[in-house]
Amino acid sequence: MSRLDLSVTICGVLLKNPFVLASGILGTGAAILERVARSGAGAVTAKSYGPGPRAGYPNPTVLDWGSGLINAVGLPNPGVEVGVGELLETKERLRPLGVPLIASFFADTVKGYGEVARTIAQAGPDLLEINISCPNVEDEFGQPFAADPRAAAQVTLEVKRATSLPAIVKLSPNVADIKAIARAVEQAGADAISAINTLGPGMVIDIEAGRPILAHRVGGISGPAIRPIAVRCVYDICSAVSIPVIGIGGVLRGQDAVEMIMAGASAVGIGSAVYYRGPGVFKRLEVELSTYMEAHGYARLADFRGVALEG
Ligand code: DHB
Question: Residues near ligand 1 with C-beta < 6 Å?
Answer without folding.
Answer: 24, 48, 71-75, 131, 133-136, 197-198, 220
